[in-house]
């Protein structure tokens, strides 16, 4: 087994144009332990100002959460996360996924509705409705003779070649249809378009949020998206093949360079910070990430 130990730090800063009163937020920034994939050795989440109330938990998809409540007036919010994580390289195996026509019977035979059930990741989700143009795009890539794993890899490769990474082209609210029309965007857009494409073919697919190695191995180029939280795709390759993860932004399988914070149906299920507060005026947000191999 190949494993890499990382020290990871994240700082998210919110600055408010006018002081805000109160506020309740759900924070998802701490990496999760996944057997055979990664292990959280130690980690902490801190906030400034200190919240009036705080509670740790897990959401439906078993992603670690920190719920924070503020009652006092404040003009900024700083969330920091520090963690040490051991990432493990997945074992290389043969393609055990069925051809596309054989996936539906395996889905029908799956009666589970727990967090890992492929049924949660098959139909439209709140941020990912069906997009006819993306469905036609996917049908032009897939072939009847291809396995589900081969189709996933082909869609990933095609998106990587057809789309340009451009951090100024889209926002967090850009829809998959808009990103597909632009053929530009960031990791969130790449992942959302790929998920919609795979679901249109009947392949369960979901969103993975996490971190990407900041310092590349010697002699290798730095990966796109390493300056902030990253996103990629997991898709179901049948009962035997299980879940596979691909990064369409960089056209690579997710391995020891990718540290998982959580997964869900789309970005809305794993957004780093969601919540409400009382205030008016605009606010600014800054994010800084550092992922450094230990030793």
What descriptors fit this protein?
295 residues, alpha+beta, 5-stranded antiparallel sheet, 21% helix
Describe the protein's topology.
Blueprint: E1 3-27, E2 38-48, E3 53-58, E4 64-88, H1 100-108, H2 132-141, H3 148-162, E5 164-165, H4 176-182, E6 184-185, H5 187-200, E7 205-212, E8 230-236, H6 238-241, E9 243-247, E10 252-253, E11 258-264, H7 267-270, E12 273-278, E13 283-293
Parallel strand pairs: 5-6
Antiparallel strand pairs: 1-4, 1-12, 1-13, 2-4, 3-4, 7-8, 7-11, 8-9, 9-10
Q: Would you summarize the structure shown here?
A:
This protein is α+β, with helices and mostly antiparallel strands and 295 residues long. The protein contains seven helices and 13 strands. The strands form three sheets. Strands 1, 2, 3, 4, 12 and 13 form a six-stranded antiparallel β-sheet that branches. Strands 10-9-8-7-11 form a five-stranded antiparallel β-sheet.
